User: Which sequence fits this backbone?
């Protein structure tokens, strides 16, 4: 384990140096012989003059002595926040779920409340978002290439099942794999659609529901560029194909 690590500071694009052995925090403070100089984060509050300077080989050398207690609680907070900042880059679970996961990972009193870190998690997620696709093919390629886009919220099942085409029209297929047994057992199914909450370039967001035991369960969603019989047919054919692959059976 490296003794010194760099973490993102509270201010945008700022960096703090953490001494994981001595339990100290250092802030950048100019240069010495061309190398970055770090001074103790308690310099302003306690006038602590301890500092750290890396040599040409990247080895850190401490100078001076601290006149205060270690920064253990602050380091725990920095580490906690940094972990919460990095987690949304690799998963699509909700911010509060990320916070709860961090609490399990770092036992003890919560370093900070969720309300304080929520904006940080949302900002980190936005920073990793790619540019908006301009075509169905580009959108399908993007979703396929990013695991947190093509998996469900729990990261357990695949949610996106590709692009289908009928003539010059396209549809992206999204299927709730966990709900497929409900469709297989259903004696009736129906479709619904919305035309108001679709991205630019798409005509409708259609959904398939299976009715079983008196409950209607949404099984699949099709993001369609048009409302044509041919496109409906290829979407439903793809749904049947996935249903057979995942359950070994097909809807009645």
Assistant:
């Amino acid at each position: 384990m490296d003794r010194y690590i760099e973490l993102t500071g509270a201010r945008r694009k700022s960096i703090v140096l953490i001494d994981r052995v001595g339990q100290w925090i250092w802030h950048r403070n100019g240069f010495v012989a061309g190398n970055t100089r770090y001074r103790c984060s308690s310099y302003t509050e306690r006038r602590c003059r301890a500092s750290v300077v890396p040599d040409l080989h990247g080895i850190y050398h401490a100078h001076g002595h601290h006149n205060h207690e270690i920064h253990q609680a602050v380091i725990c907070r920095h580490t906690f926040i940094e972990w919460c900042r990095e987690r949304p880059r690799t998963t699509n679970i909700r911010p509060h779920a990320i916070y709860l996961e961090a609490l399990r990972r770092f036992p003890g009193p919560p370093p900070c409340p969720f309300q304080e870190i929520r904006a940080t998690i949302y900002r980190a997620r936005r920073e990793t978002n790619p540019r908006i696709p301009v075509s169905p093919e580009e959108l399908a390629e993007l979703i396929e290439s990013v695991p947190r886009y093509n998996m469900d919220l729990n990261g357990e099942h695949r949610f996106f099942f590709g692009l289908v085409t009928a003539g010059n029209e396209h549809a992206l297929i999204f299927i709730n794999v966990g709900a497929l047994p409900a469709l297989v057992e259903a004696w009736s199914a129906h479709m619904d659609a919305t035309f108001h909450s679709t991205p630019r370039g798409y005509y409708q967001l259609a959904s398939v529901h299976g009715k079983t035991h008196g409950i209607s369960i949404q099984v699949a969603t099709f993001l369609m560029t048009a409302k044509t019989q041919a496109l409906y047919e290829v979407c439903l054919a793809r749904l049947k194909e996935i249903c057979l692959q995942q359950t070994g059976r097909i809807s009645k």
Observations:
- The chain has three domains: 4-63, 72-127, 136-247.
